[in-house]
Structure formats: C-alpha cells, structure tokens
Amino acid sequence: MNEITEQVTEFLTLALRRPVAPDDDYFALGLADSLFALELVTFVEERYAVTVEVEDLDLDSFRTAARIARFVRAKQGHPAGLGAGDDASA
Amino acid sequence: MAELPSILGLPEEERAVCGQLGIETVGVDDADATTLAERAARRALAEAGISAEELGALLVVEQRAPRTLLSSEATLLQARLGATHALTFTVGGLGCVSVTPALLTARGLLAADPELGPVLVAHGSKPVSEHRYRHPVTVNGDGGQALLLGRRGNLTIVDQVQETDGRYWDLFHVDYRGRHPSRWREECTDQPAYSFRLAVETRNRLRALLDRLLRRNGLTRADVSGFVSQNLSAGGLTFTEEALDLTLLPECRENLRALGHLGPNDVFLNLASALEAGRLTDGDHAVLINVSPVAAWSLLLVRTGPGRDGHRPSPQNHQETTA
Fold first, then answer.
1. Fold for domain A3-81?
2. pTM of the entire predicted model
3. From the list B192, B193, B203, which residue is nearest A38 (CB)?
4. Which intervals hold domain Carrier (chain A) (predicted)?
C-alpha cells in the first residue's frame, strides 16, 4: 500500500468511524452521504493540493481508498495515476 | 411528524434517517395546492391594498402534481382570485429552484412594459401523495406563499444567478403511471450520484455562483448581512454552510424544525422570518440559496428597505402555513 492509499484509508476509517480497507467500496456499503462526500473531497484537495472539478466527479474514481490514491496521482501528473505500491489491476 | 402514518410505516432504516433530519413537525392541511396558493395570494393582496383586478400578471410556480392533466391550475387560480386582466401562466420545471425563473419572468415583464400592473408569484406546496418522506432527503410539509412584485417596495431583488445540469433530470421522480396513489413515492433513482457527484458539484457550482453574484454587484461576503437556504434537513443546512464557508441565519433551522420542506417557498419564508426577527435592517444585503436535484442552483441577492432603482422588482411576501 503506497503512502497516499494509506493516508486516505486512515481518513476514511476516521470519517466513517469503522475500519475501512483500501479496496472497500464504501458507497456500495451505503456509508456515504453528502456531508461525508464534502469532507472527503475537501480532504483530498487540501492534503494533496489538487482541485476536484465537476468533470472529475466520476464516482468510480472515489469508490475506494486505492482508487482515490490513483486519482490523486493522476491529478498530480503521474502517468496513469500509478505510484509505488499501486496495483494497476485494482 | 413521527406520528404521521406514512412515517410510522417506513422501513426501519429509512425511519432512522428520517428521524435525524432535524424536522419535528410539518404543516398538514386538507386544502389542495391551488387553495394554499390562493389563501396566501389573497392575504398578500389585502395587505398591499391591491385588488386582483389590478394585477398585471399572475405567475404560478409549478405544483408537484396537478389534480388533473390538461387542465390549468394557473388559470384556476386566476379565476378564483378574479385576476381578470392578469397575464397568467405557470413557471416551473426546476423543483424548488422554480421560484427563481418565476422572479426572472416577473422582472422581465415589469421591465418590458412600463404600464404593467403588479405581478403576483404564487405557489402551493403539497406533496404528490400521502408519503411525505423523500428518502434520504427531507419531509414535505404543506404551505402556500405569494410574492407581490412591483416597481417599489420594502425589499428589492437586486440580482439573481441560476444554472442547471440536465444530466440529473431524473435523479428523483415519482413513478405514477399504473400505480395506485397509495404507492406514489418520491424516489431517488441513483443514491450514490445524489450523495457524491451532485453533492460535490453543488459545492463547486454554489461557490462559483456566489463569487460571480457578489463580484458583478461590487460586493464582498462582508457586505452580506445574512444567508438563507432552502429547508431540506439539518445535514443539508450544514452542508451548505461547510461548502460555502458561511453561517446561515438561524430561522432556516427553526422553520425546518417546525414546518419541514416547503419546496420553492422555503427561501422567502426564511427571509421573512429573519426580517420579523429583526436580523436585517434597511439597506442590508441578503443572499437566498436554492438547490434542486433536477439539478438546478440559484442565488438571489436582495436588499432590504425601500428600493433605489425603480425597475427592480420589490416583492412583498406572504406565507400561509398550517402546522
């Protein structure tokens, strides 16, 4: 698990008040509401100095911690959003 | 509210969410939506000392459901009021935000025709069926509202901005064809889209709209004495506050608690309550924030006190709600 995935997993575990694994789909688990979405996107923007635009709002990019990490790396300009420890098949 | 049969009959999970909305009571009235609008309209006209025959236009903000198809609730209201000379039609299609295009239309009519009499904007808020709960959003109450707009008054609509995103046109709906009315429910067709994509898009849209509205009027946030929003839930009000980094006037939460969601009537109800509570004084600016999952977003900039510009519509608000 790379550093971003680890940090996002930690944020999700705190925000959702339950253990969240890197590949847990918390939307499918019914854990996400609009206030949580706001907190999540604000966390991503402030922690990683990226801006989430309307055209970035593909739910598939935010379903799991691992996918958020790839989204962040892609926004930061890394090829295909991959970073050390990322699993391209996830 | 918890005693309503339609709330008692909810599945446990939905009842739990409903119980956390911050709504304790809702208005329930036997009258239909047009009657609710009519009562408010009569009081608005009486308080302004204007007869219905003097109205230049009657704009009805679209009801959630007409009692029959093909017929016109707008001209029914015209007939009941005796607004014989009023140009009459319905404005809608944007849920709670529909009040904004109605005001835009009123402004256009008043600007286009210097001889036009006052314009009455009216809406009766009533849910489509006995099921008042819209999971996981709000509980609908009953209430009527009328805004009387003229070229001078004690409140001026300074400016308004509005955007829509048609990708959400069917995010909430009532599937009614072939269903008994007892099964008509306001349903979310894609809850993750509502809770995530629309939520974040709403944050981005409202931030940009607020910046644009203030900038083009030469104002900053420090120049705005009060913000009000529509009353969906306590979480919804917190969402707006966090998304825009502002504090809503307390009347939003008070009206939410006592009356539930009144559709397009919420923002002016909250503004009227804030004015009654003395939170705004003459010359103050306020911003009214409205969001609909259709999806539509609108912000209205208003200024309290006698108007300075004779061409800007100045509404007198009257709300009728039975709690």
1. 1.10.1200
2. 0.91
3. B203
4. 1-76
